[in-house]
Amino acid sequence: MNVDLADRIAALRDEVLDTVERGEQGALNGEIFDATLRCLVAFEATDPGIDLALHDALSRRLAWGDSEHALLAEADEVCERLLASARRALREPSEEMLVVEAVTQIACTAARIVANAAIARAGTDRAAVLREQAALKRLREAVARQQEELARLGDPLAE
Amino acid sequence: MTTPPPLRIRAAGATHPGRVRDNNEDCLLIEQNLGLFGVFDGMGGHHAGEVASATARDAVRDAVRDAKGATHFVEREALEAALQQASVVVHAESSRRKARRGMGTTAVLAQVGGTNTVTVAHVGDSRAYLLRDGRLQVLTADHTIVAELLARGALDPDEARTHPYRAVLSRNLGAAPETRPEFCHVQLQAGDRLLLCSDGLSTFASHRAIEQTLAGAGDPDTTAKELIELALKGGGGDNVTAVVIEAGRKEVPRRTQIIRTSGANAWWSQRDLFLQQAAARDIARSPICAVLSPGEAVDIVAGNLCEAIYRDLEQTTGIHVWTYAENLVAGWLDQDGDFAVVRDLLDRLASAADAVVEHIGATHFDMGALLGLAVPRALLVAELASGGMISKRLREVEAQIVEAQSALAASESFSENVTVPIDVPRADPPSPAVARCLDAALELALADARTHKRPREDGIVADCLERAHKAARDHGGQLDGMLAARELFGTCALGEPAIAPLLDALDRARLTHVSAVKRAPGDDACRAAALRRIATAHRMLCSSTARIVVDGGSSVTDRHREMLEQISLLRRKVADNERRIQTLEGRYKTQPGWAPPRGEA
Question: pTM of the prediction?
Fold first, then answer.
């Protein structure tokens, strides 16, 4: 457990998420930051809850319509800002190494979650494309039948 | 106040199992002597729906017959009592046998009274329609969950059309001993037609198609069969039943028809004047008429428009002028003609038409006023048709451009595209101590990676380690991750089985590398600097790999979106064609002199 270090990093929250500059609405989302804190608290112990919580938070944002690219860009930005703030705030290199390690782990996990979400979406879309292809075929056949019917009825617009 | 003479009521019905189902759970009720008509749509597995609808029909008929025998007969009370009685009977039958548990039925009833009133009662989503003066209106509101949400404003019509619960009834007959029917009263007029139908018709035929068929000249029997055909043409996905009730019959043409016909005749009688006016406006000199003699130009170009306007006025459609304008514009654009020429010709023809209308108005003021609205409307249709043709051409040109661009893109190899930003941000080079630490960390990490003895996976991990190490040495970790990730990604298929090993390898490489840096020789400050560089490189690598996967998935999403647009276009086309077929069929039905062309149906 490294609660002391996590507390000191938690104090950097407003600075990292740029709350003052961007306001509450425009501030960066805190998923990456919070997950990093949990990672620091867990230290070297394994905590599957971190991945689950991060997965949950990112999935919710995707469900609300944020794009995958936006999530990745925001994760990069939060990591950069957190590393810069931590480097300035922490005097012990060993402590900074812990933060760097935690940030990298969370950033890579976030990237993996987003990639998996994109794969799942592509799978769904691919299945939908197959379904729509069948629907298109049926519609084209229906149009052809209608054109024949129109031609039979002497419609001047029949192709 | 005198009681109106009773209208002669004629009724007929038809029912069909549809194209999908084997059995027919609908049934109809026509009791001419009682003035009672109805449609029932049963539901419930193992043929229970058939039992429910037939039981309800018999119970309603018997109840109304008994009530008619009594001295005091009130339509609404009789129908309500009959439906309650039917609900009790169906529910009792459903409770008696396990196989029929949960069965029920919808019901829509029409009871014609002596003073030409009709009382309509309904439960469920079977409907009653009234056709009056060629306009169709729904008399009943569906008792479905979605319809009630729609009425409360909780859903909009688009959501309602695709709502998963759109077929779930909020009221029916038989699910419980009591039922809550809804009533409405209509004072019948000569020429009115009532339609009672199950949802197999209202779901698989459009409102307009039902309106046109019901307004046709056929007797109730023919019309009911035509309505069934309509639903079958629309897919026939459910049992379909229709009962058509006709009140009297208007033999005299309606006022609107007289006005329509006389307006059209007045226009046609001035055909020669229109041709003269068109000739006076030099339409023969238009480049569109270049291959025609002046006489032919006037006869063909102006004469055809005159006839198209006449037919549209007579039939209250726009199809003839629309067709005329489309043919004119398409022919001209096929010769790579300029649209301004079409515009000029249409303006000249419109001016000639104005002169004719003015001439008619000078002798018959009312007719002039009528045509002063109708003829410009017909010419507006020509404008719309020509605009549509232009837009169609633009879409074709756009498709050609897109195709040409795709062909161009396909002809270029990957290396010819600039995918790597030239200005890669570089950090300061590492100090000699940090560089030594990084080199040592790589050696340690590679040694660790080899201990797993899985050559293929170890190969990818080693590759990741070397790329991250190079980035950490050269750019302080700020490499263009996309380039390195692309090379690592290679030709992975976009699916979890192909991509998961790469993501696993990236994870393993990162953990191994970080662990190795911690063990590398040097002081804490030196190791911290090395770790910053290594961590940044790995982070970029992971993030860029995720971006490549996302981009790959987006192309599938885009394709899906394009297909949905195509489907939407085709659906509109199918609907348009269906309307056109209905119009043409309607023409053959309503005009005695016309006969449908022979050909294979």
Answer: 0.43
